[in-house]
Amino acid sequence: MSRPLLFSTTLLFAGGFCFPAAAQEAVVIQKKHRALFQETCISCHGPEKQKGKFRVDDLPFEIKDIESAERWQKVLNQMNSGDMPPEDEKQPTSAAKADFLDDLANVMVVARRSLGDQNGVITMRRLNRREYRNTLRELLGVEINVAELPPDGGSGSFDTVGANLFMSANQIEQYQALGREALEEAFAWQAAASVEEKLHYEAETTTPKVRDFVKYQIDARERAQKWVKAVEAAAAKPENKEIVAKIREEVKNNEPRFRREWARIPGAPDPFSFGFDKGQENDADLANDSLGAGWLKYHEYYTQMPDVDRGAYLGVQTRHPSQLNVNYIELLVPFSWPVGDYIVRVRAGAVKDCPPERRFLDFGIHARTGKVLHTSEITGTIEKPQIIEIPLTLTRGNASRDNRSLFFREKGSWDTNEEGARKRSEAVKRNGIGPELVLWVDWIEVERVPNANKPKPPGIAALDIPLDDKSPPPAKPALRAALEHFTAEAFRGRKPDAGYIDRLMSLHEVRLKAGDKPAAALKETLSVVLASPMFLYLAEPSADDKRRPLTDAELAARLSYFLWSAPPDATLRDLAKRGELKKPDVLAAQTERLLDDPRSSDFLESFVHQWLGLDRIDFFEVNRALYPRFDSGTKVAAKGEIHETFAHILRHNASLRDLLKSDYVVINRVLAHYYGIPGVKGDGYEKVSLPKDSPRGGLLGMAAIMFMGGNGERTSPVERGAWVLRKLLHDPPPPAPANVPAITRLAGKVLTTRERLLAHQEEPQCASCHRKIDPIGLGLENFDAAGQWRAEDSYTAIDANGKADPKSKKTWAIEPSAAFHRGRAFKDYFALRDIIASKSDAFARSFSEALIEFALGRPLGFRDEPLVTDMIEQAGKKDLAMREFIHALVSSKEFHTK
Amino acid sequence: MSSPLSRRHFLQSSTSLIALPALESLGFRRFASAAAPAAPPKRLVFLGFGWGITTETWFPDIKQTGKDYKLPEGLKPLARHKADFSIVQGLWNKYSNEGHWGSTMWLTGANRFAEPGQTFHNSISADQVAAAKLGMDTRFASLQLNGSENAEASGHGPGLSMAWDVSGKPIGGHKGPVEAFHRLFSKDTTPIEQQKAMLAQKRSVLDTVMENAKAMQRGLGKNDRAKLDEYFQGIRDIETRLAKDEQWIGVPQPKAPIPQPQEGLAGKEEIKIMYDIIVAAMQTDSTRVLTYRQPVSTLLTSIGIKVAPHDMSHYHSTMGEKLAASQQRDLVQSELLAGLIDKLKTTKEADGSRLFDHVALAYGSNIRTEHNLDNCPTLLTGGGAGIKLGHNLVAPKDTPLCNAWLTLLHSIGVNAERHGDSSGVLKEIVA
């Protein structure tokens, strides 16, 4: 079938519009299991006896209704939990039982789908969070934080599936509040359209602070030593013997605590007289602290570095940042500066002998919570620094110090206190001082980019009345026109009834009468529009519940919400209005245009994220002690690799096969370094050819994918194997059954991963699924829990107190060879990857099915089978090029039908 | 709560026109003073004390479980009530990770990082779950009380009170006894006309979106109508809330059973008076759900302690006066609580029973000591708490604190399926 599936709409929909009454999907349990039943079940659950009032002899092998499905589910549960057959009764052979459970579990999955088939009906839906945010952005030109809206989906389906998108009283109020916020933001952007601001900060401002602190520390230490001597002298006096002994006993001979009790020792001097003032508290605490002069050596080392008089080094945290901060450079964007687009510049270089892994500079907002927004590699030197430019948008939300303080810090130097302190003490062990200073910053700069020359966003342009308080409130006709135009724009071309506009008019008047300024009254009125159903819902009305072809306008909305997660733009709406959009060549060209537009990244990212279950990446924190290189910046980069690779494939209409195996990767400098792959030239992600024997290339070679198949500490071959079956091979194992008894006899034993997994083969309940899952996971064991290649693994038992017992440590060489269940054997990861890559049709099916659900907003049904086949066939003609799947779907009857 | 004139009625019939603001308050007058219910209602109270307690001297010995435990030093002032409260050990909020946040997630059990990409997330607090049900018949669905000082200094963490709404947003609270007293017992000075106008405005917003929803409903099939019904239901729920607000417009405040507190009370005296206000609020049935974020910083100053409150909780590093301060704080707090329990026992309900018998009260913090967030100090009391009183209960280590909240919710008739990260009720302690 060639792409222009719709020769003409009249042809397709001629003679009334109806789908053939599709036959129900057949759900059948294989007959071969009958023997097992006869031998082991019927004697208690048959015509004679019905123990537990349950009989199985009349269970139909074809499941046609919910009642028989439920009875079979009961059989499955009982056998999985090991309760049936009872221990003292005749048991089936392990192999027969495993096969039966395998078959039955899969049949139950099909039965659930078949019995719940919506027959292609698409439920009307509200905008999900992403679409709501984007719709506001397209309308008002501003992006607001929608995180407070309840999350969508989460019930195992895509966040476009209408049946799972709900509405509540609270949400309606939230929509109005968020709409109000978006209007405030948009009005503020308009008001500040031509404002220019610029701030330049020389980094050497830090140096005198460090010098002063060094002086202070040396002086305070001296004073503290003198005081200590004086206290000790007083304590040594014979007449004080008794009280000293008493205090020593109380403080358990702890010297600093002993000194805190100075006031009780006659003759011991007041620490205050030595210059230690801790306000209301015991001044001795400050003296005790000064005695140690914490990190003095490091601070001295800092001041002795070259070029500290014209720049600053980025070090580690040594003192509380309010005392001294040599960890990061911070710049507060002045509170008086308005919302808008900004550019942040930094001029930085690295020392000559800077190790490659320490050349990365993090940029972010609010160093304490340390949200990294951008990481760049420093290729410049101190003699020849480079300038890096980072775009930044500040909104009304960036109103407090916490989210207006920009920072630059060496990547990974202080992501968390624990991790920073660990790296710091490692360095002290090595050199006695602390981490070497390698990154140097000359200056930083932040500048506002005026937006006066940009076209006004459509919602604002539609108003065409003054948006400030200087002008008087608009006259009624002008206001009415403004509301009509704004609502038409907000409702994506649909015009509301006059009665609705009347009500908005009177709301506006009431607000003005209540004392609102003109702009406030207008915003309040418009916020009601943004909480109205015509804005919030994507409706495709069909009064009699009949399936019908979409109108042109509906098609435009479906297409743009599919490929942009955003409303149709003027071009699409115009084509729809002129009745052109349904023409196959126009539709195909528009599909191409939408995919080429940067807005398509929202479709791709959210689709890939949900399809591949990437939320698991954020479920776990990596164990930094085990994987110090997988820091926050690397994790962000690794996640980015997945999305950038998909984006690359979509952009170049490359083959889906590249996701299974490819001779290139799409990475940035952070990952290039992490993977040890040379050749990245720019600052962002780019395509780089791989050396011949590289394990990278394709999803399985991605650090983030392998990270997901573990818990941040150890790998999980089960998780990885199940993921491969589910996503790549279109052979999903049934959901993990409840109440399968755990294999307890292995608890506390030190075993290799392979030995541990082998236990799954002992019980038929486990084997029925794990015999498929585990071999694949074992083949991926060469990737550690942070996605790095490894040749060996080890395990250390944890004792009752949660401490690792080093004596128990066992190390083994990874043995990746295994065989698919009833399938081909592979000797290592490369062979496994080749087998998976050879099954690209299964992968294409998995991709197509997910794409249909996402695009149509309903679960896949039995009757979608021809569509899936068509998509694979059509894409197959072009080597499974990614865009072909989308074209096939967009031109399908299903995509054009309510 | 239905009236022949209720807006709900208008809304349910899809053909009727929505007139605004058609409703006269005549239909609501009879609700004006909530008639004394046959049986006294259940109440729920949470008292939070920020920086925690002294681990070594506040908890009973975990080996002495059940009734026969020795009252530890820090709880001695509560000795006369020993049979009427229980200590529960081993509870925590597993997601909590901020050592300075004693109240932020105490009643929610939320994971602050649950929202990818965001640095703060919270969810509904247990008191608000209760208020959604117990709050329908009282002037205030719930009352949030705060100390009259900076909450950060007392180790409570972010939040406007201890209460968080259904979408996890902070709910404001009343600062100090004077403000709380006025809220409860002083006449609302907003002119009735203005109150009505504000209500009318809210209603006309609803009418506007309703108009739009109806226009949209035309032409929808059965399936889609069912989907849009969620929107209609949402509007109806807001209506119900507004209708409740309307009931109380112009209804005079109850006469205060206690004198107006002095201005400027702080610390110990402030807490004592606030406890009186809590009792008075329940006595007048102004609300049935209360939270109080107690001051700790000024409590210390008021009893002559000079140690900074945060440092006090770090007594392990220095012991000495910091430990002494921490223990003294425990004693004063226990003494104050004992006084509150006295009042609850002596205050009588309309049917002659003790107020104490209808209250479920939880007293504690998300912080134990220092920055430790496990074994959150938890004291439960009140005959309405539905638990065994007089016990030292040791739950398995790291049992969700929300299990305790779920237990309390059930005891007052709010049969939530779960709360926060709860895994079930605290079976061991259910009476």
Structural account:
The complex is a heterodimer of chains A (898) and B (431). With 898 residues, chain A is α+β, with helices and mostly antiparallel strands. In chain A, strands 2, 3, 5, 8 and 10 form a five-stranded antiparallel beta sheet that branches. In chain A, strands 4-9-6-7 form a four-stranded antiparallel beta sheet, with no helix packed on it. Chain A has a two-stranded antiparallel ribbon with strand order 1-11. In chain A, β6 and β7 form a beta hairpin. The longest helix of chain A is centred in the N-terminal third of the chain and has 31 residues. Chain A starts with 8 loop residues before the first helix and ends in an 8-residue tail after the last helix. The N terminus of chain A is likely disordered. With 431 residues, chain B is of the alpha/beta class. Chain B has two domains: 315 residues, Alkaline Phosphatase, subunit A; 65 residues. Chain B has twelve helices and eight strands. The radius of gyration of chain B is 23 Å and the shape is globular. Chains A and B meet through α7, α10, α16 and α18 of A and α5 and α6 of B.
